[in-house]
Structures are given as C-alpha cells and as structure tokens.
TrEMBL record:
SUPFAM superfamilies: Homeodomain-like, Tetracyclin repressor-like, C-terminal domain
Positions in coiled-coil regions: none
Alphabetical list of Pfam families matching this protein: TetR_C_31 (PF17940), TetR_N (PF00440)
Species for this entry: Streptomyces sp. JL1001
Protein name: TetR family transcriptional regulator
DNA-binding region (UniProt annotation): 30-49
Keyword annotations of the record: DNA-binding
Domain of life: Bacteria
Length: 197
C-alpha cells in the first residue's frame, strides 16, 4: 500500500494539540486525544512528536510566534529612517508616550479577542514551571519581545516593559477581571520614562 503524502500533517497535529489543550487543559493532552482531534492515525502523532513534551514545545512555539507577529505588525516598528507618525516636533517624552500607547493598544486588541486563546497561551507558557523542556521556548518569547522593543528603547527598559505586560495579563486572567487600558498605559509610560533618565 502506497503511503499517502500529507505535508501539512505535522501542522494539523500541532493545531489539534492546541485545540485539545484549549478544551481540556494540558492534563487532557495525549497522543491519542491529539490523533482523534487531528483525524490522523495514532502513529502519526508519535512519528512527528516522540513525546508529549516535544508536542508541547511545538504548541508553545506556535503561540509565541502568533504574539510576536502581532507585536511586529503593530505599528511599533517603523522602517529604518522613519520615526513614525507624529514624530519630529512632538517634544520630549513623546516617543515614550507613543510606545506606551501602542503597547496598550496591542494588549487591548489581544484582550478584545477570544479570551480562550490568551488563556491557552498562558497555560502553555506557565507549564514551563513544571516541564523543563518548555523553558527554553518560554525564554525565546521573552528574548524576542525584548529584542523587538529594544528597537524603540534600551534593553533594560524593554525587559521591564515585557515583565509588566506579562504581569498585567496574568492578573487579568487569574482574577477573571477586565483589562484596564488606562492603568496599563500609565504604568507603561512610567517604565519608559524611567528608562529615559
């Protein structure tokens, strides 16, 4: 019997893993549940991912890519030589206010979307506490976000911005609260202003 060519199978398996985790949490993840969700033979999941940790790494990396892509396409990063809209005679501190506003807008859009997607991303991110295989991938997200933000501010301030955004997201998710854009913008502005000293 000829083997069926299915170049997208690995991607479908990752998507299925994300669906299973979103519905049942990481505790509900198994090669069997993923195979059923992806509508592939059980052997396909173990062929592409020898362990559940390998599958979780791929799923977390997918989530990281989604958020970093949102950050890249947010308007925060103008092309070289283009200071962006409103630059020029905006006055001192305007760049930091613009950065804080844009990051707040990005988080606001993120929370305006489906909350389940954010919960999924953070469940995978926090799984690194107990699953050492996920730690390097969680660190990749932080490093990439800091590198992107360092194009607009110094690296120390970029790390502080990422930490604050993570903290705000965790508080909103864990308390079941709503995202407070005004508060977040003020806190982000304070961090940026502190980095300018």
């Amino acid at each position: 019997m000829a083997r069926r060519y299915d170049p997208d199978r690995r991607t479908r398996i990752i998507d299925a893993a994300l669906t299973v985790i979103a519905a049942d949490g990481i505790a509900g993840l198994s090669h069997r549940t993923v195979a059923a969700e992806a509508d592939v033979p059980l052997g396909s999941t173990t062929y592409h991912f020898a362990s559940l940790d390998e599958l979780l790494v791929a799923a977390l990396r997918r989530c990281n890519e989604n958020f970093v892509q949102a950050l890249r396409s947010s308007g925060l990063f103008a092309e070289e030589g283009d200071a962006g809209p409103g630059a020029g005679d905006a006055g001192p501190g305007a760049e930091g206010v613009g950065l804080a506003e844009e990051l707040t807008r990005l988080l606001d859009r993120w929370f305006a979307g489906e909350r389940g997607a954010i919960e999924l991303e953070y469940e995978l991110y926090l799984a690194a506490l107990r699953r050492p295989a996920l730690r390097p991938v969680a660190a990749e997200w932080t490093a990439e976000a800091v590198a992107l933000l360092s194009r607009r501010t110094d690296p120390e301030t970029a790390r502080a911005l990422v930490a604050l955004m993570d903290g705000v997201c965790l508080q909103v998710l864990l308390t079941g609260g709503t995202f407070d854009a005004a508060y977040t913008r003020v806190m982000l502005e304070r961090i940026v202003a502190g980095g300018d000293d």
